[in-house]
Amino acid sequence: MKLNIRFNKIFLLLKQYFTENLNGQIIYWSIMALLFTAFDQRGFVLIVLYLSGFIFTIQLNSKLNKQTTGMQYFLLPASQADKMVVSFILNTIYYFVMTILAYVIGNMLIIIIYHSILKIDVPINWDLFQFTIPTLNNGIMQLTVRNEFWNILGTFASIQSISMLGSLYFKRNALGKTILGIFTIGLLFLILQFLLMDIFIGEIEFFEKIKWLTIIYSEINNSSSVGILIMKLCAFLIIPYLWLVSYFKLTEKQI
Fold first, then answer.
1. Which candidate, 152, 165, 180, 217, has a CA 20 to 30 Å from the CA of 52?
2. Which of 28, 150, 49 is nearest to 100 (CA)?
């Protein structure tokens, strides 16, 4: 399989997108910056990043499922590989960078408005990529700060690859059907985990199973053993696999 990727075509597609959507993008990211000025807590920012990025990808590819706009899109002088690269740049790299930029601008506005103008001492959160872990060491509780940049970026890229495939696969109501598909797969995976726990641990109550799963996933995230690292690597390899499946789906739509 040969992917025909041409950087000049990618540049032209990006130029076309921003030419058509520049005003809307300026308004959108201005609103996001103001939103992060009011709510700059780490958990809120990450929820907005994941959820809004998911919706952005669905809307970005929604025109492919319409007969008129879809036909115009496929007639653009660029290969499907070029279009997939542009979609990846917009929904993953561009959206992630712009969200971080909106977060930074939001915090700068807090400094200007609250600290400089209103003279109000409001705490500023610059800890978006920092996660504090309480650990017990010789009976003394200690706080360990861990950088979560790559985990956050990997999670975001995973969500975007899933939403990209969903937007290309479902012809109508792609957003709702993709969410329903994720929920169904997650539910089946949870049931499978419960069945495995019943086999290896024995029958325990529902909330005890949830507690066990929480401990297991916490150990996976905090462990650096070779086996855990291999599991994490396999999880990240799902991302390019979904991109490849999305490419074949896009090619199939053109046919």
1. 217
2. 49
Give residue-wise pLDDT tens across range 69-109: 555 666 677 778 888 888 899 999 999 999 999 999 998 88
Q: 3-state DSSP call for residue 79?
A: coil
**CA nearest neighbour of 35 among 24, 23, 48:** 48
**Tokens 């109000």 — which residue?**
120
Structure confidence by residue, pLDDT tens digits, 150-170: 889 988 999 999 888 888 887
In this structure, what DSSP letter does residue 138 have?
T
**Residues shown for the chain:** 255
Residue 127 DSSP symbol = -
Helical pair 174-200 and 149-169, crossing angle rounded to 10 deg: 120
Which pTM value belongs to this model?
A: 0.80
Long-range interactions of 12-18: CB distance < 8 A, separation 24+: 12/78, 13/76, 13/78, 13/82, 13/83, 13/86, 14/86, 14/89, 14/90, 17/86, 17/90
Would you call 146 helix, strand, or coil by DSSP?
A: strand
d(Cα 223, Cα 242) in Å, to the nearest integer? 27
So where are the chain's domains? 7-254
Q: 139-156 burial string, b = 16+ CB within 10 Å, else e? A: eeeeeeeeebeeebeeeb
Written as six digits, the tokens of 187 are 């539910």
Q: pLDDT means per 10 residues in the chain (255 residues)?
A: 73 88 94 91 92 90 63 69 87 95 91 80 78 66 77 90 85 76 79 75 68 64 62 78 84 66
